[in-house]
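Onboarding guide, step 5: your first structure request.
Type a short instruction followed by the sequence, for example:

Predict the 3D structure of this protein.
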Amino acid sequence: MKTKNKLIIGLIAVGIVFVVAAQGTIMPRIAQKEQPVAESQDLSTHDFDSVLKYKNEYMGNASNLANLFHSLPLNDIEMSFQLFPDTLTAVINYKAPVKAIGQDKVNKALIYNATAAFVLIDNLEGVKFSFEGSSYKVLRSDVEKWYGVDLPVLAEKVAWEKTVQGKLGDDDYVQSCIKAIIAQVEGSTSIAEVLVNFYKNTSEPIIIYDQIPFESGTLVLAEKLTDGEHYPDLHFVGTNGELEYLTRGSYCWTLNYTQFKGRYIYFGLAGVEARRHKDNSIPVEKVEALFSDKIVSVIPSEELIAHINPMEKDTRMFKNPQGYIIPVEGRDIPVDFISVFENGERKSISGMYIERSMDNMPDYLKSRDSEVYNSFAFTYTPMLTTTEWDKGYKEGEICLEGKTDKNGNRNALYLRPAGHMSFLDSYILPQDIKPLYLSDNYPRTAGFIAGETVAVKYPEKRKLLDCRILRLTREKVEKEIGQDSLAVIVTDEKGQLILPKEKGYFLFLLRTEEDKEIQTYTGILIIK
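The system replies with C-alpha cells like these:
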C-alpha cells in the first residue's frame, strides 16, 4: 500500500513537472506561432498563412468555419454563426452596430473576410454579415468578378498579399467592391420592395441608380419617372425596412447635395451630364470632388441597380446614367467637381454648369472665393422625413403671395421645408443655414418690388411663429453667416408683411407651430 502511494505521489510529481515544462517551454512555442491579436485585426498585416489550416471542402463543418472567422479581422467583436446548407450560405452575426466599428473598417473587412472564406471553403456560395441594425450579403460570384481568377489561386501567399491585401489601401477599389455587396435590411426586404411600397405600388417606372451602405442603413439614389426631366433623389432606408428620410426636388441631373447625419452628401448622374454637353460615349470611370485640403472620389455605378415597371419604349430613359453618391466629412463645398473618363480625359462638370448658367448667377455668389463661386453649380435639397415633406406640400400652400398682374398671373415665392424641431428648441434654426444660400436656388426664387406688401400663406390649423429675413451679399457669404444674422420681420393682423426697400437677394425663413412642433420653410426672394 505504501509502495502504491509512493508511486501515485511520484506520478503526480512528474505530472507537475510536465505541466510546468509545458507552460514554460511548449506553450511559449505555440504562442510564438500564433499571430498577435493586434496584427490579426490589421488588414495590412494579417497573416493569411495562419488561416490556411481551415481550408475545407464543405461549409457544413461548423467548428472549422467558426475557427476561421475567429482568426480573421473583426475577431475582437463577439459573434455567432448560422449555417444554411440548402443555399450553401453562412451567416456571421456580429454583436455590434456598424457605426461603433466604423464604416470604412467594416467595408474593408467585408471584402477581406468574404474573400478568405470563399478561397478556403470550397462549396460556400454566400456569406451574410449581420451587424446590429444592418446586414450585408456577399456572393461567391461577386468575389470572382473582383479578382478575375479562380479563387483557389489566391491561397498562395504572394498572390494573396498582392491581389487581395495590397489593394485594400486603394479607396476606389474598395468602393467598386462594396457596390457589388448586396445591402439588406432586416427581414431580407429588398431595397426595390421598400421603394415600391413607398411610392404606393405605382405603375410608373422607378429607377434605382446606385446604393451604398451608410450609418447602419442604406443610401439609395432613385427616382419615380413621371415626366421628361430626371430629378434623382436620395433615400435612406433604415434598419426597420422602411424609407426614413429622403430629398425631394433635386432639380438637377448631376450636381446635388444634402446634409445628413453630420455629413454633406453629393449625388447625381455622372454619365448624363458628361455626354449631354460633349459628344463622348466613353463611360465615366471616376467622379472626384476637389476640396481645398483633400480629394474625395467614387466610382459611379456601371449599370442600374433596378428598373421597376419598365416600359417597352421609354424615350425618357437615359442610356447608362452612372449614378453616384459621395458622403463627405465636414461642411466644405467642392472647389471643383470632375468626371474622369475611362480614356483618362478629365472634365469639370461644375465648371461646365456654371459656364452655361452664368447669366443667372446671383451677385453674392460671384466671388473670388472658389468655394462660394463653385457652390452655384449645385442644387441643395434637405434630407427630411416623409412626415416633414408631407406637411410642406400636402397640407396647403406655404408661400409669400405678391401682386397679381392684369392677366391674372399670380406672383408667389413657394417655400421649401427645411425641417422640424421641438417647441422647446424654438431659439434654434434647423441644421446649419450654409446650404440655404451656397447653392443654385433658382427653383425657390421669386422677384418682388421694393417695399411691396405681401401675404404670408400657410395652413390655417397652424400658428405663425415668426418670419426672418437676411440680405445676401458677397462679403457676408464669404464668411460664415450665423443663425442670429437673420432679422425678424413683423406681420400685421391681416397676415401681411412689408418687404425691405433695399434691393438685392434675400434669404427668407418662415416658421409655423403645430402640436408643439416647429416647421421651418425657406426660399430666396429678389427685391427689384
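Each response can be followed by summary notes, for example: The chain has four domains: 1-33, 37-184, 198-380, 384-527.
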